[in-house]
Hints:
CATH topology: Jelly Rolls
Structural class: mainly beta
Shape: elongated
Largest sheet: 5 strands, antiparallel
Mean pLDDT: 96
Radius of gyration: 15 Å
Order of helices and strands: EEEEE
Number of domains: 1
Low-confidence stretches: none
Amino acid sequence: MTVLSIYSPGTLTTGGSGFHSASQGVSNPFATPSAVxxxxxxxYVAGNGQSDFGISQVNLIDDNGQFQxxxxxxxxxxxYLARLxxxxxxxxxxxxxxxxxAIEGTLTLFSWG
Length: 113
């Protein structure tokens, strides 16, 4: 397999004193459904608190041809996925969460074929 195309919808930034979060929903920009490698990259983290950036939900077609919404992570920091390969991706949601900190992350999707 090889990378056919790359897409990045831009950065996701949040932060400040106390708890903050921001999310970004992205539909598969390639042929839907298709094989996609999902990569979340943290550009910076600032402050003395905690932060997390990653995949919180993936919408896909499973091996039986059925729609599935798969959730990742929970209320604890460090539980969201940084990367994932999905054979039949429809869309996904990424989230950035902070407590007394700031974070900027970038989502990149790689179409495989």
